[in-house]
């Protein structure tokens, strides 16, 4: 008969109800709800269960396949991708963080990239260096603006004093 599943739920209705109450994540509740419905005497079809849960029937079938192979624990386990491998290793990141804390920093992110290549032997693209320095290490490469050598230093200090006085108003 189409739509009828051939799965034998080993847990009792009381156990499933208890697990449903203790489930912490919405995805765990959805998966346990599917088992709860299938354990009932007049179990609905997989398509009806999938529609009630708001998932595709193939998704529900894959949950049930996980249940068949490993039980409730395997069905509730949500695997997380480890992510990509970092181009700049942690030891190089620590060395750069130490170098950035020194008084004389870098003029640009290109200079950071060059320092990594020459000193540590780590070849990395500009974007990777920028992302690591700016966002992971929270460092900003601020450099003082160049000043004209012909400026009068007395006039500049007088201007700073008058600008402080006017900004206080």
SSE blueprint and pairings:
Blueprint: H1 13-22, H2 26-39, H3 46-53, H4 57-76, H5 90-101, H6 109-120, H7 126-136, H8 153-167
Helix pairs in contact: 1-2, 2-4, 3-4, 6-7
Task: Summarize, please.
This protein is mainly α and 169 residues long.
What distinguishing features does this structure have?
mainly alpha, 0% strand, 169 residues
Order of helices and strands: HHHHHHHH
Helix content: 55-70%
Mean pLDDT: 87
Report the uncertain regions. none
Structural class by sheet pairing and helices: mainly alpha
Work out the radius of gyration. Answer: 31 Å
End-to-end C-alpha gap:
85 Å
Note the beta-strand portion: under 5%
Helix run count: 8
Main beta sheet: strand number and arrangement?
Answer: none
Number of strands: 0
The coarse silhouette is elongated
Question: What does the model show?
Answer:
The chain is an all-alpha fold and 169 residues long. The protein is built from 8 helices and no strands. It has helices at residues 13-22, 26-39, 46-53, 57-76, 90-101, 109-120, 126-136, 153-167. Helix 3 packs across helix 4 and helix 6 packs across helix 7 (126-136). The chain starts with 12 loop residues before the first helix and ends with a helix. The mean pLDDT is 87.
